Amino acid sequence: MTILVTGATGNIGRQVVEQLAKRGADVRALVRDPSKTSFPAGVSVVQGDFLDVDSLRKAMSGVSTLFLLNAVVPDEFTQALIALNVARSAGIERIVYLSVIHADVYVNVPHFAGKFGVERMIEQMDFKATILRPAYFIQNDLTVEDVITGYGTYPMPIGPKGLAMIDARDIAEIAALELLRRERSKEPLAFERINLVGPQTLTGTDIAAIWSDVLARPISYSGDNTEGFEQNLKQFLPAWMAYDMRLMGERFLTDGMLPETGDVERLTALLGRPLRPYRDFASALAASV
Fold it and tell me: Rounded to an integer, what distance in angstroms lies between the CA atom of residue 219 and that of residue 229?
């Protein structure tokens, strides 16, 4: 019985592979270039690509449970649909899909809308699946470390509603636990969605205050200018992605990313420990500066 992990070279996928291997699972990692990968002993590596159907068929042969993770790319939706059709043809019923929280609310944001379309396909094709819906990744803020420490400002468009930020390590561990729960069940388990959230819902000013505390100097919040956010992103991202991120930021400001009642307690029970708070991330980063 084999678990196939897609997106295995990314931050989340790699950690999912490691969590599964640590727990003794039979893991297969789908990667574009095996020569550039390094996984724990016992992990099998298969070369493939979401748009290379023959490679997907080979990768999914003999697989019982699939972890589906797609990068934010222009054809993300197409990639996911191809993967799910190949999975069904391969006889795979058990799936864990990494979506995003409020995928059904942020309807104008391209990568949110795409993920919600994938969710609907998974449900309508009657896969026995867990849809994981993570909020904002705490580790996204690694990209603005220099702005925080060098310019004394927190620039991400978090806004006043707040985001229930979650640590990427918690996401990966929860994903691994869900994969194992489905893999080891005698009968396929029912379809369900799980919000992945952190222990606190933080506003832009909350996060600036945390940085001010851990750096012992004033850090201001300057993130409500989504037009400026887009222009900054265009310096190192394609224009379409910068615009997608701007639209997401605008929904942060108007809607936030808020947990539902019981989300934090459910995840804490699943992990058997508290969720990692944003302050731990900021403190570790500040200590390394």
Answer: 18
- Which residues are within 8 A (CB) of 159 and not within 5 positions of it... i.e. 6 or more apart? 203, 204, 223, 224, 249, 252, 253, 254, 256
* Per-residue model confidence as pLDDT tens digits over 145-173: 999 999 999 999 999 999 999 999 999 99
Structure tokens at 18: 């490691």
Q: What is the mean pLDDT of the chain?
A: 96
Beta-carbon-side half-sphere exposure of residue 267 (alpha carbons within 13 Å)? 29
Q: Are 108 and 118 in contact (CB under 8 A)?
A: no
Name residue 134's beta-bridge partners: 196
Residue given tokens 């574009």 in the structure block: 32
Contact 122, 132 (CB under 8 A): no
- The strand pair at 153-154 and 220-221 is best described as parallel
Residue whose pair of structure tokens reads 């993967």 in the numeric block: 83
Distance CA 100, CA 12 (A): 13
Report percent pLDDT > 70 for the chain. Answer: 100
Structure tokens at 231: 């222009």
Beta strands in the chain (DSSP E): 2-5, 27-31, 44-47, 63-68, 94-98, 128-134, 153-154, 192-196, 220-221
For residue 1, what pLDDT is reported? 84
Q: Decide: 123 and 191 in contact? Cβ < 8 Å.
A: yes
